[in-house]
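idk why but the lab printer keeps eating my pages so im just putting this in chat instead. protein + cytidine-5'-diphosphate:
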Amino acid sequence: GRKKIIIAIDGPAASGKSTTARKVAGLMGYTYIDTGAMYRSVTLKVIESGMLDEVRRSPEKVEGLVKGISIAFEGDRVLLDGRDVSGEIRDNRVAREVSFISSLKPVRDALLVMQQELGRGRGVVMDGRDIGTVVFPDAELKIFLVADARERAKRRHLELQAKSPEGFGVPDLETLEAEIVERDRADALREHAPLKKHPDAKEIDTSRLNIEEQVAMVHDFAVQMEEGGR
Ligand code: CDP
Ligand code: CDP
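predcted complex ->
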């Protein structure tokens, strides 16, 4: 029979990780784990606790907030300390702070343990920035998705417009692109677990692919790996 594998999907913002990961997981009968949602949840917790400025001044203060935090996945929903935060974690106010919060060692250490536990039985598709490099360097299939910054900004712009049809609070395309480029830069340059392609990862440029095409590419690789091929 087939062995269950771990599929690690990394790449910059809006490269198509989560849509690909969710669909490939569905096709394989695997569990999808969105680690970006975990970092976004911690960020929301810091913002809501009113501690953001204090954590900026003294980053070690974040430790008290991550200790005992509960992040759970229920179907498509994300529960932070038991509360459904699936919508709030996608707000741009969270996106603006998430790179800072995810650069902090106590945050990464806590989430690393949770993520490795979630993937223990294999049969998971996990997406993020450091899944192939740090969380599961032994993942059988590692994918690194990339796409042009302008194309990625357009994708996020469409999503934000769909959430707020009157356009209230939706940044213009140029602003969004600048924010995405800055977040990628911060994620790639940070000291702990930076965004980086693992040498064994298969790189796919999704700029000119539609979702069906990119899902088919990753799914084909996954089936080959499950069958023990290369
Ligand atoms: O969906 P989008 O690509 O905008 O971002 P995300 O996957 O939700 O991740 C949000 C942020 O969390 C990233 O910009 C990283 O700063 C951080 N992150 C991380 O550091 N490591 C991961 N494995 C996943 C996300
Ligand atoms: O998870 P990540 O931030 O890498 O990206 P995503 O949330 O999967 O994709 C960002 C947006 O781009 C979603 O609205 C996707 O539907 C869209 N997308 C697209 O239009 N064409 C692609 N080839 C890939 C994603």
